[in-house]
């Protein structure tokens, strides 16, 4: 018998292991790499600091005592649900809006 469980979203933001930013992953990151040990512009795996840091400093919140990737940190953003549901356009509505803009630009150019 197979049991189906509902998907459980994470309530805290994900951390990019490339730039140490929030809300995206290293796979989709287009920013320069940032080292979590020394805040240099290189990947953490390429850092010259090999030994464990006695008093680490977070490169995002600049507090001493933890690194960016520590899950218990207070400054880790918590994802909240919006209180009001936002109405979004369907693809057809957005495409129709683009056509109207192009037509109005062409009319302005003719005048």
From TrEMBL:
Domain of life, source organism: Eukaryota
Biased composition (Basic residues): 98-111
Segments for region (Disordered): 88-111
Official protein name in the record: Pre-C2HC domain-containing protein
């Amino acid at each position: 018998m197979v049991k189906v469980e509902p998907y459980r979203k994470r309530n805290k933001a994900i951390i990019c292991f490339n730039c140490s930013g929030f809300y995206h992953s290293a796979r989709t990151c287009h920013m320069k790499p940032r080292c979590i040990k020394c805040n240099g512009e290189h990947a953490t795996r390429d850092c010259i600091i090999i030994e464990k840091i006695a008093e680490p400093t977070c490169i995002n919140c600049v507090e001493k005592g933890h690194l960016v990737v520590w899950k218990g940190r207070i400054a880790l953003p918590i994802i909240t649900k919006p209180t009001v549901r936002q109405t979004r356009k369907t693809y057809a509505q957005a495409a129709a809006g683009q056509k109207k803009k192009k037509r109005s630009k062409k009319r302005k150019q003719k005048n």
